[in-house]
Design a protein that fits this description.
The structure is a single chain. The protein is mainly beta and about 325 residues long. It folds into two domains: about 1-210, Lipoprotein localisation LolA/LolB/LppX (outer membrane lipoprotein receptor (LolB), chain A, Clam); about 215-320, 2-Layer Sandwich (Phosphorylase Kinase, domain 1). Helices cover about 15% and strands about 45% of the residues. The protein has six helices and 21 strands. The strands form three sheets. It has a twelve-stranded mixed beta sheet. The protein has a seven-stranded antiparallel beta sheet with strand order 13-15-16-17-20-19-18, with helices on one face. A hairpin with a 6-residue loop joins strand 8 and strand 9 (about 155-160). The chain is globular, with a radius of gyration of 20 Å. The two termini are about 35 Å apart. About 35% of the residues are buried. Residues about 5-25 have low confidence and may be disordered.
């Protein structure tokens, strides 16, 4: 959920039809405005994330020139960590272990899959309702609720800075509108003089660090011998990767991540060979808005994880099946 703000998820109540929009913007117009603001504005700020009893804070520097986005995120709580990205290139420095992990991430920004799913899909599953104006980190912000039309996804309450549209606060709403997770700026300077060149230089300076590049290979679930026997409403397959742990592995043996999205919420299916010592129970887990559940499927273990209701993950994990021995 941090990414939703830096480049820039109500069962019984939300299972009922969402109220019709009463504001002047449609759900697509609200989201497009927020999405573009996160891609176009330069800023610095302090971001606080609360999920259940856990809380963390980060310092953000974000700059863009219309074509490139560069940002740095320094953790202020927990283990020291600095993450710097240039567009989809990301490097994470961990000072305690002296490691620098280099990755490419396709999904970036506020609701990153919004632009990769059909533009007419989101209004089928969500509506927007304007609920007023509040101050966040010293800035006036329009408050809008993005409410689901069924029980398979969460809702969102979003604070969008009035002049720019930048998201300054976002809550993930659960049953009866309960706040499951919250991300908010406590301090924010818009149009800050952030140096893109300095951030790029810091990204390249790996002296004293062991550089790690995870061996990810783009593939398809079908090529790995997997499929869903039923579709989950609104969720489309976005990407599939395997993590190569060795050479010459047969299809389906390398750990796989299969990502689905409805444009706002996302679900990942992690598939790996079954290990009796590690995979002993199918007990669901939850941290804030993120839920997970595991299940054995033949000689494999499947974990479903995402910022969606547990019932949605259970539907995914019951739908996945092996097509190859």
């Amino acid at each position: 959920m941090v990414a939703a703000l830096t480049a820039g998820a109500c069962v019984s109540v939300l299972a009922q039809p969402a109220p019709a929009p009463t504001n002047s913007r449609s759900v697509s117009e609200w989201l497009s405005r927020m999405h573009e603001a996160s891609r176009q504005r330069s800023y610095t700020g302090t971001l606080v994330v609360s999920a259940g009893a856990a809380m963390s804070a980060s310092k953000i520097w974000h700059v863009c020139d219309g074509q490139q986005q560069v940002e740095r995120i320094d953790s202020l709580t927990g283990a020291p960590r600095t993450t710097i990205r240039r567009n989809n290139e990301v490097i994470t420095f961990a000072p305690e272990s002296k490691t620098a992990t280099v990755e490419k991430r396709e999904s970036l920004g506020l609701f990153p899959d919004m632009g990769r799913t059909p533009s007419n899909q989101i209004p089928q599953f969500y509506s927007a309702r304007e609920v007023g104006v509040q101050r966040v980190a010293g800035h006036l912000a329009d408050t809008v609720e993005i409410l689901p039309r069924d029980e398979w996804r969460f809702g969102y309450r979003i604070w969008s800075e009035q002049q720019s549209g930048l998201v300054v606060k976002i809550q993930t709403l659960g049953e009866q509108g309960a706040v499951l997770e919250q991300v908010a700026f406590t301090e924010l300077q818009l149009d800050a003089p952030v140096s893109m060149d300095k951030l790029k230089q810091a990204m390249k300076d790996t002296r004293g660090y062991e550089v790690i590049k995870p061996a990810l290979k783009k593939t398809t679930a079908e090529a790995q011998g997997w499929r869903l026997k039923e579709a989950i409403p609104g969720f489309q397959s976005m990407s599939c990767h395997t993590r190569e742990a060795g050479q010459g592995l047969a299809p389906g043996q390398a750990p796989m991540q299969w990502v689905f999205s409805d444009g706002l919420a996302s679900v990942s299916l992690f598939v790996e060979p079954f290990d009796e010592q590690r995979h002993r129970q199918e007990k669901p887990a939850a941290v804030g808005a993120t839920h997970s559940v595991g299940r054995r499927v033949g000689d494999h273990w499947v974990t479903a994880m995402g910022e969606v209701p547990l019932a949605t993950l259970k539907r995914f994990i019951q739908a996945i099946e092996r097509t190859q021995p």
